[in-house]
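Project standup — Tuesday

K.O.: blocked on the structure for the chain from last sprint. Re-posting the sequence here as requested.
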Amino acid sequence: MMGEGIVFAIWGLGVILWIIGLAAIIWVIYDVVTKQKTMPDGEKVIWIIVALFLNIIGAIIYYIIVKASHKYEGEPEENNENPDEPIVF
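H.V.: unblocked you, prediction finished:
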């Protein structure tokens, strides 16, 4: 029947959107925990909660507010004391 194909297509679209939402949640949590070193811990928790409840929309909001503005991404400190000296980490 024709109705079964439509139901299957809608179900498939739902699965695809669910996978994209899951990827968005994982991306936000990974980025908050690993890359935003100067972000306060309380704000990290808030962004993780936003990602869990708002999925794709939360990831878009996170990208606009945090990632696009480079709000918490610190630049590496340069050692300008003696340029001939090797940098030791």
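K.O.: great, moving the ticket to review. The chain has a mean pLDDT of 85. The longest helix spans residues 2-34.
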